[in-house]
């Protein structure tokens, strides 16, 4: 039997919602600031910034995603024609630039696993339920597609890693029963606690103050927002 092959990473591809919820494939239009200076490719991760606009999330071991970029719309500054584009070209000057974003926090997506950069690699069933870092490869200005992947070799229980592996993709498994594609979701926010101790020299008493901050995870689930 011939197995389909995955020759290179392709970004994040939405496939379903967690728990068998009805998935309509809906997107939200989120504004991109005129002149924003970074390419965003189909399947890249985007985040909200303090101006209320979307930017590419370039995180690897941590990230603060609002969703998956599935193209954009803007008026071409040269031709003055309205475009529906596969990717956002850096430095596009247009006041009506909007990203199509799958922003549901429960989105499940298919993603390729690599050993580093763009080298697709196979991992076992034990990778399921672990967290994984992202690998931020440059997308293609020819196809408009992302080349983001997850690093399966660095999958771990570390809470701050941005991607949770939910399941395998059996269609592209190899003959040995290992997998190069996985079904994943954005990880939940996590708490970072910092302890600060102060010595009162008059009483010789040490007071310890613990500060906890919610960070990371999908931005809609993080109570402190962006």
Would you spell out the secondary-structure blueprint of this structure?
Layout: E1 13-17, E2 28-31, E3 45-48, E4 54-56, E5 67-75, E6 82-85, E7 98-102, E8 107-116, E9 119-120, E10 131-132, E11 134-135, E12 149-151, E13 163-168, E14 181-186, E15 190-200, E16 205-215
Parallel strand pairs: 8-12
Antiparallel strand pairs: 1-8, 2-7, 3-4, 3-5, 5-6, 5-7, 8-9, 8-14, 10-13, 11-12, 13-14, 15-16
What does this structure look like?
- With 226 residues, this protein is mostly beta strands.
- The chain has one domain.
- The protein is 0% helix and 38% strand.
- It has no helices and 16 strands.
- It has strands at residues 13-17, 28-31, 45-48, 54-56, 67-75, 82-85, 98-102, 107-116, 119-120, 131-132, 134-135, 149-151, 163-168, 181-186, 190-200, 205-215.
- Strand 8 (107-116) and strand 9 form a beta hairpin.
- The N and C termini lie far apart (48 Å).
- The mean pLDDT is 95.
Defining key terms:
six-stranded antiparallel β-sheet; eight-stranded mixed β-sheet; mainly beta
User: What's the story with the biggest beta sheet?
Assistant: 8 strands, mixed
Please tally the helical runs, counting DSSP H or I stretches of 4 or more residues. Answer: 0
Q: Could you tell me how far the N terminus lies from the C terminus, measured between alpha carbons in angstroms? A: 48 Å
What does the average pLDDT come to?
A: 95
């Amino acid at each position: 039997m011939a197995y389909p092959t995955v020759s290179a990473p392709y970004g994040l591809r939405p496939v379903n919602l967690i728990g068998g919820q009805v998935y309509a494939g809906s997107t939200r239009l989120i504004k991109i600031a005129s002149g924003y200076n970074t390419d965003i490719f189909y399947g890249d991760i985007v985040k909200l910034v303090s101006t209320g606009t979307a930017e590419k999330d370039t995180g690897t071991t941590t990230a603060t995603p609002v969703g998956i970029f599935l193209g954009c719309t803007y008026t071409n500054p040269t031709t003055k024609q309205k475009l529906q584009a596969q990717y956002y070209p850096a430095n596009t000057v247009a006041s009506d630039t909007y990203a199509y974003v799958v922003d549901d926090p429960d989105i499940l997506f298919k993603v390729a696993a690599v050993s580093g950069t763009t080298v697709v690699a196979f991992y076992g069933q034990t990778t399921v339920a672990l967290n994984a870092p992202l690998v931020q490869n440059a997308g293609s200005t020819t196809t408009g597609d992302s080349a983001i992947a997850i690093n399966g070799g660095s999958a771990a229980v570390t809470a701050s890693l941005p991607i949770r592996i939910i399941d395998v993709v059996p269609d592209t498994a190899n003959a040995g029963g290992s997998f190069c594609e996985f079904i994943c979701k954005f990880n939940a926010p996590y708490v970072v606690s910092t302890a600060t101790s102060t010595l009162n020299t008059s009483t010789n008493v040490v007071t310890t103050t613990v500060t906890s901050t919610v960070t990371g995870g999908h931005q809609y689930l993080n109570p402190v927002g962006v």
